[in-house]
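B., you asked whether I could sanity-check this one before it goes into the benchmark set. Here's the sequence:
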Amino acid sequence: MSYEWLEWAQQLQAIAQNGLTYSENPFDLERYQQLRQIAAQIMATHSNTEFSYILDLFNSQVGYATPKVDVRAAVFHFDKILLVQEKEDRCWTLPGGWADIGESPSQAIVREVYEESGYHTQVVKLLAVYDRNHSRHGHPPMAHHVYKLFFLCELMGGMPTRSLETEDVAFFGELEIPKLSLTRVVPSQMTRLFEHYRNPNLQTDFD
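And here's what the prediction gave me:
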């Protein structure tokens, strides 16, 4: 499925956001506001989402437009990988989420794993940096342009614990992977993570 409309809307929103950040001419500012509204209309029309919701989301973005960063952990134990079940859609995903301001990527992923699963980990290696928008990954569309960072993490201790966001915590073999939360991780990425696990000499993936 093609999501060219999503890329167009995101690019228009980025142009508008950058213009609103740096322009001082009132006429230009008005044009950038109009451009932002067009971007919101494109996204609302093709995603069956309320225009006002998309516009409010865009209006909340300030400063120079850059991709958001999502961090995900690949934690293996006896050839199985750690997954958590999201309360939001009751599907499974790698522990992780948005990186917070003031955290390094490794700090963010260690925190996310503990908060969502109850396990203590340490980061071993960056396995992949993927552009969520890239068509080959197959994620459902979303308003933000996102870079996804996948880290190999070593299990250090702890015990499975549910959180405000997670319903369950478990380890799964490669042929046991349950229904995935596709907004967060897709089957091809899971397959690649197991390949990295079996072959530690693989270089970091990107794009």
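One thing to flag: Residues 193 and 199 are 10 Å apart (CA to CA). Otherwise nothing jumped out at me.
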